[in-house]
Amino acid sequence: MPPSPVPRVGRIFVGEDWYQVTGINSMAGMRDPLMELHHESCDIKLKALKNGALVCDYEEGRKLAVDEDGAMDFLALLAEDYIRDYCRDDNPDWTEGYRIYQRLGILTNGLGHSRMMDEILRRSQWLQSKDLHGQRSVDELKARCTVLYESQAALFDFV
Length: 159
Fold this sequence. Notes:
Elements: E1 10-11, H1 33-37, H2 39-42, E2 46-48, E3 54-56, E4 65-66, H3 68-86, H4 96-103, E5 107-108, H5 114-129, H6 138-144, E6 147-148
Antiparallel strand pairs: 1-6, 2-3, 4-5
């Protein structure tokens, strides 16, 4: 099936500060202070990206890979505790799960994919910091738009 068009409410200006790698943002994205602290025993190295960001180097193979045995062990032994501890609306970093899976060796990035994953994590963290994550109502999003698409407004009247 071809994709169906998704109605758009408008645009919320996000600027470029979500990808800055200075100050507090220098620890955003694929940085993992816990793994960096134990880098010698965990054999984790930092990799510098072209924009100056430092990321934990979890690159192996050609593409994103999932260790199926590790994932099954996680589900059987650890998932309930992690869900209890991290899957909450008040969790300060909704991207923590990705780092947990990397710490445990369940996920590895493909060669050359660290920049893209770092961007995704930084953008997600920025959205959370601006309270644009999770389930938001159309009215809430509409109130925050800098540009509204009035031609599509009728599509949201049922909400």
